Amino acid sequence: MITGKNYIGFSKSVESDTTVTSVNAFNGTVLEDNFFTATSDEIDKSVAKAKNAFIIYSKFSGAKKADFLDEIAKELESLGDELVQRASIESGLPEGRFVGERGRTTGQLRLFASLLRDGNWVESVIDTALPDREPIPRPDIRKMLIPIGPVVVFTASNFPLAFSTAGGDTASALASGCPVIVKAHESHLGVNDLVAGAIIRAAQKTGMPDGVFSSLNGDGYSTGQNLVLHPGVKAVTFTGSFAGGKAIYDLAQNREEPIPVFAEMGSVNPVVLLEEKLEKEAEEIATLYAGSITLGVGQFCTNPGLLFGVKSKSLDEFSAKLAEKMDEVSPSSMLNEKIAKNYSTQRNELISDNEILLSTKESSSVGVPTLAKTSGKKFLENRKLHQEIFGPLSLLVECEDTSELEEVLSKLEGQLTGTIIGTDNDLIQHQKVIELLESKVGRLIFNAAPTGVEVSHAMNHGGPFPSTTDSRYTSVGTGAIKRFARPICYQGMPDSLLPDELKNSNPMNIMRMINGGFTKSSIE
Amino acid sequence: MITGKNYIGFSKSVESDTTVTSVNAFNGTVLEDNFFTATSDEIDKSVAKAKNAFIIYSKFSGAKKADFLDEIAKELESLGDELVQRASIESGLPEGRFVGERGRTTGQLRLFASLLRDGNWVESVIDTALPDREPIPRPDIRKMLIPIGPVVVFTASNFPLAFSTAGGDTASALASGCPVIVKAHESHLGVNDLVAGAIIRAAQKTGMPDGVFSSLNGDGYSTGQNLVLHPGVKAVTFTGSFAGGKAIYDLAQNREEPIPVFAEMGSVNPVVLLEEKLEKEAEEIATLYAGSITLGVGQFCTNPGLLFGVKSKSLDEFSAKLAEKMDEVSPSSMLNEKIAKNYSTQRNELISDNEILLSTKESSSVGVPTLAKTSGKKFLENRKLHQEIFGPLSLLVECEDTSELEEVLSKLEGQLTGTIIGTDNDLIQHQKVIELLESKVGRLIFNAAPTGVEVSHAMNHGGPFPSTTDSRYTSVGTGAIKRFARPICYQGMPDSLLPDELKNSNPMNIMRMINGGFTKSSIE
């Protein structure tokens, strides 16, 4: 049930008269529910509760936190059709998409639960005492990761479930032992309300402390800004535009105590198309990429926005096929009016300056699949062409030769992904292309499309600036938990007082590095 | 041999007429060698060389980089007495200290070499393909750490060898695969010159690319500032004052592309003295702490600057003994005039406002061992008492009761270390004290002194802000290598093109996480 209230831990709170609403993204009509915005007093209360909850929650065993995450997944499933329908209405995407996205969201929660039950994620490292060492004895030293404190999560417009209220950021922060305060996204306030209620019920059912989770509605920028600047907040996550992410980063770095910000921002996800592969499989690749460019109306952070190739007959044939296949995709509603308007403006600017391979339809309210083309030379001259246009659009950059292709790649900014389409023979002949792309990206993909980010142990969803503000961490997959942890070292601590992960007997049976070697053995 | 020149990779360079000199710290006389400061052109050249070197060096095998690190250690040893003597003269510390510190420095280099030969540090994670998975197949995904690019190292006044030109920061950055540009410390220009020459010789002997290491002399702040702001620089390390570290951090975060800064700044390293232990071992603890407070004239980042206890007869007896033992330590020269002057000023201010347990001698040019005392109440009222005074000084804070002790601890800033002196019984009765201290520090020590930082796998030399600018990383021990690395994920990459660490056959025989489990097995 949608309450319209703020969730300050276990309390539903309304202190302000100001309300905000969300919009039916299919037709632009305002939805009837009113959501009360959080006051600065409510922000303070949520952080105060989170700080108190942290003292208790951070000491809970992995198994106890895992029960909480599993219960959140169950509560999400219990929301049934109401959640799927609301997500569809607030995003303009079909309901079927949210059956899938709900599965991804509950899958993430359960993956983190299993990670906690395994217990290995804390990176236990033990150097045992050497009392007889000369000239001085070595003390007993043991290190592991511990959580850092309350985390503020900004939710994403393009994933109302999987990157939002109970999405990957919340799941990984809660898994690490950090309480979470969510700033609800103005585009899907109803979904946020439903999901926040589910998380609170799960917290109460599994005996979590009041304050382990809060959710606040905001009016404009001030709610988010006040949260980022609050001294009790110890980290921030964000998924969205470069302007939004960078503004939050700058706020957080200029606090008296700077804090980590994990902002996943723009990425144009360059794709390099090599010739032998294009000659052999133009049709298949065109089909794959027409799907990838227009999937979810192009509103994915891994949408392939730049295609690079060397001038050739096969590149011409491929691009004609790609345009043909993209033309079969109908224009669709975008996530919200602002995104649709930005897309329309940027797309019109692009197509007025460049050759158009596909753009027959005109509309400012829906996402029209678009394929444009430019030369390597023009791309090098015009930095604007390097920037992301969020929507179902790709720019083909035709280079004169491999040397120009290499130059173009060397000038790219940091990206979440880079893709190479090539035969084994193509790859062997383009080692430098591979190395250039590797230096720019967080994930290097071969003969596939960048959309479809696997939630697994080996995934890296991150990349060099400006694709994220911290290339050292992933926001998808189990590695995401590391964002909210720091090492602590215990020197000479009595065994009975040590955390289980570091006790001599290794009661959790985890893999540890002991005196430089990996082992699950206990210590005599 | 001291050259006085800048080392721009393999070239010795002099483009400026400006020279700087270092000082005999024992008597304040200027030493005769002139060191030419780097021009902005020389800074550009060193970064350009580092960028080019990175392309080659970052792809070298661990074994090849290990040979380089081992050779640096050998070259340092070949410098013989000249290095030890110069370090003593430039720091005002006895030669014997530098025989030890040289051993620590070469030991660090060799530890990182062995880490590279082991190969495990890259955190290989592999999720193999699931071609039959429904609804969509899982691709083959493999992740590992790769180096981030050229690193600027600011060297430390208090460790001319172990935290300087070939110290832990340089060793860990080179180990990760990143070229290093050192900004020489104005206090030990001669030592820097000798060590830089040794590193260059080692690089040439082991076939490293020109630009893998550079060393620049500076005049005031501009050299360091220009290095931090250079777009080609990808990370910065610093060990020193809060003001210096925070200034570098702010510069780096306000670049167009923000970069990681690992600044290890001030720490007062609180020590909690519990009653039962004090009753039993006052004499031993006083001896231990008199040594720790005055070791190296108190010029260690882990110097215990704050002692906390609850008012009792045993605390009085302990503090009297501590004062007595500190009184036996002679005042000594400090690292440089600025440090000596700051110490004198801050110490005089402290002792004019607080009770003095020991401070019979007066001098502005040497470090006078000092023990002062204040109440928990005054400590809570006066934030100035929380700040580090760099030198052989400690402030005893006498609390009324355990509750005041807990309040005082809850108000402390982030610290590198926190120490608890207590019997098992004391510890069981002071769980909250342990937890409070744990939340503030990077290393929690039991019944020892915080000075003496072990270089090992389990060490964490770091801590919450403001002790460092990034609590998620250690600057001492093998974990320090992680500061200069980021994950990259390869999706569907042909096995022959994968780095050895991720190849099916596991040619390096390293521990990897495959489909969620740890194993050294190869993949069929």
Instruction: Predict the CATH topology of the largest domain in chain A.
Output: Aldehyde Dehydrogenase, Chain A, domain 1
The pLDDT mean of chain A sits at 96
Counted up, domains of chain A total 2
**The CATH top-level class label of the largest domain in chain A:** Alpha Beta
**Terminal Cα span of chain A:** 56 Å
Number of strands of chain A: 23
How would you name the oligomeric state of the polypeptide chains in this document?
Answer: homodimer
Number of helices of chain A: 15
Per CATH, the superfamily of the largest domain in chain A is Aldehyde Dehydrogenase, Chain A, domain 1
* Percent in strands of chain A: 15-25%
Q: Report the principal-axis shape of chain A.
A: globular
Concise summary:
The first copy, chain A, is of the alpha/beta class. The first copy, chain A, has helices at residues 40-57, 62-78, 80-91, 95-118, 168-176, 189-205, 222-229, 242-253, 275-294, 313-327, 337-353, 376-381, 402-410, 424-429, 431-438; strands at residues 6-8, 11-13, 19-20, 35-36, 125-127, 141-147, 151-154, 180-183, 213-216, 235-239, 261-264, 270-273, 306-310, 332-333, 355-358, 366-367, 370-375, 393-399, 415-421, 441-446, 485-491, 512-514, 517-519. Chain A contains 15 helices and 23 strands.
